[in-house]
Design a protein that fits this description.
alpha/beta; Aldehyde Dehydrogenase, Chain A, domain 1; Aldehyde Dehydrogenase, Chain A, domain 2; 2 domains; seven-stranded mixed β-sheet; five-stranded parallel β-sheet; globular; binds nicotinamide-adenine-dinucleotide; binds succinic acid
Length: about 475
């Protein structure tokens, strides 16, 4: 058996000698190659740059990220094309990712003021009590491959606004996108030392995380890696660590006459981005009495999804998974479920020889004695049939993860019960599990995160609060407990 995100899938075939080579999943062609960076050199440069950047007025830093947004607008075709080539996602989706990168800037400006701006309160003796925020210093941003621009950018922009300098290590599976993103900042006029790209794989990630010159680690990736980072930093409580990790997300379908809509929400949740979203629905929990109608429609819809290369016409719904190793792991996982009590609803098929195109797959695991609680990061949906709502909630919570969860159907009372009892950072009603908004906090509990949500709340982990009481002159007397002279 090969459980994808728990085992050694991170054998990095892309790292060859001192180069990283990036391949297009849809063709197998080489897209890019580049030299692995020197961690010590890059961190030292960042440390030298930090004081001047932190000392700039906030308005200057905001102006800089706004100029960056303009550069991304100008380069949007180029950036979207690179995202599509490196990840294999359809061009429509890559364009949406670029738009999210641009929108993040104004959201982060608002979030900084709202969450970490300065506040002055009236204090004693006509003085003031103030709360202001300071940047941490040098922050490491470690990115995943599935949103290689949007997710690192979601840390980088708020970190820069707050006055940090950043060393960004993109995923070794999408380094070219990372490099392009950083070039947009530099073209906007940002000093090269304030935001640097570190090309590398897990070894460089580890070295960066443990480096004494790094004051914080903003990570998006698998739980496996997040836990390794947490362990490495266990004796460094002073380092900021924000971990945005994976999920084993449930979608519960309850009483609703709107079977077609429910099926569309399930399919969007499970198969958008070929299931390579942290918020993708992995487990469909369905009321027994609705099973036949719902599963029939979900399968019909999944059968119609076009799986294809990013630039195909007509546009595919989803592309390949990231590489052959991942496709093999998913296929083996499907076979494992099957040989341990799972019943096929829709087979997982390798659609093109030697390329990681997988058909969406659905398997009923109700009768499995033990269902593995792992994140299978691809187009694989497991179905569990239940009889009552308490059982549905218990099934949904039967995971160590806690990122997103949706209820489809049910009454407002059902949703209230669902919302109150589900352990997750994103809980939706009649909406997919994925498609989270950058204007809301985004994070999970359990193995999904460490209570430092990103998106709108990214401002919180990019600066720390300092409380001060202040008078313009020393003014004090000792009122009690003095001996008279
Ligand atoms: P990954 O954990 O393999 O890699 C993420 C980054 O960490 C990469 O840059 C990698 O080089 C680096 N890295 C790997 N090992 C490291 C180590 N020991 N120390 C330091 N750095 C290390 O993740 P991935 O496969 O690129 O991305 C997919 C995963 O990301 C999925 O689990 C998905 O659910 C998760 N994800 C989470 C969110 C979220 O916001 N919660 C969003 C997107 C993706
Ligand atoms: C992700 O970050 O992987 C997905 C975000 C979302 O679609 O909710």
């Amino acid at each position: 058996m090969l459980w994808q995100t728990e085992q050694g899938k991170r054998v990095v075939e892309q790292v060859s000698g001192h180069e990283i080579i990036s391949h297009e999943p849809a063709t197998g062609d080489e897209v890019w190659r580049g030299k692995v960076g020197d961690v010590d050199e890059i961190v030292a440069r960042a440390r030298r740059a930090w004081p001047a950047w932190a000392a700039l007025p906030l308005t200057n830093r905001i102006e800089m990220v706004r100029r960056f947004a303009n550069e991304v607008r100008k380069e949007s075709d180029k950036l979207a094309t690179m995202i599509a080539r490196e990840t294999g996602k359809p061009m429509w989706e890559a364009r949406a990712e670029v738009e999210t990168v641009v929108n993040k800037v104004e959201i982060s400006v608002r979030a900084y003021a709202d969450r970490t701006g300065q506040k002055k309160l009236d204090g004693a003796l006509q003085g003031t009590a103030a709360v202001r925020h300071k940047p941490h210093g040098v922050l490491a941003v470690l990115g995943p491959y599935n949103f290689p621009a949007h997710l690192p950018n979601g840390h980088i922009v708020p970190a820069l606004i707050a006055g940090n300098v950043v060393v960004f290590k993109p995923s070794e599976k999408a380094p070219a996108t990372g490099e392009l993103l950083v070039q947009c900042f530099h073209r906007a006029g940002l000093s090269a030392a304030v935001l640097q790209v570190l090309i590398g794989g897990p070894a460089e990630g580890q070295a960066l995380v443990g480096h004494d010159g790094v004051d914080g680690v903003l990570f998006t990736g698998s739980a496996h890696t997040g836990i390794a980072i947490n362990r490495k930093l266990a004796a460094n409580p002073g380092k900021m660590v924000a971990l945005e990790m994976g999920g084993n997300n449930p979608i519960v379908v309850w009483d609703t006459p709107k079977i077609d809509d429910a099926a569309a929400i399930v399919v969007q949740s499970a198969f958008t981005s070929a299931g390579q979203r942290c918020t993708a629905a992995r487990r469909l929990i369905v009321k027994s009495s609705m099973y036949d109608a719902l599963i029939g429609e979900v399968k019909r819809l999944a059968d119609r999804l076009i799986v294809g290369a990013p630039f195909d016409e007509p546009s595919p719904f989803m592309g390949p998974v990231i590489d052959n190793r991942t496709a093999d792991g998913l296929t083996e996982s499907f076979v494992y479920l099957l040989s341990n009590g799972g019943k096929v609803i829709k087979n997982m098929v390798r659609l093109r020889e030697n390329l990681p195109f997988l058909s969406p797959a659905i398997i009923d695991v109700t009768d499995m004695a033990e269902r593995p609680d792992v994140e299978l990061f691809g187009p694989l949906l497991q179905v569990v049939r239940v009889d009552d709502f308490d059982e549905a909630i218990a099934e949904a919570n039967a995971t160590r993860f806690g990122l997103s969860a949706s209820l489809v159907g049910g009454t407002p009372q059902d949703y209230n019960r669902f919302w109150a009892n589900i352990r997750a950072g994103v809980v939706n009603w009649n909406r997919p599990t994925n498609g989270a908004s950058s204007a809301a906090p985004f994070g999970g509990i359990g193995l999904s995160g460490n209570h430092r949500p990103s998106a709108y709340y990214a401002a919180d982990y990019c600066a720390y609060p300092v409380a001060s009481t202040e008078l313009d002159q020393p003014r004090a007397t000792i009122g009690v407990g003095l001996r008279s002279d």
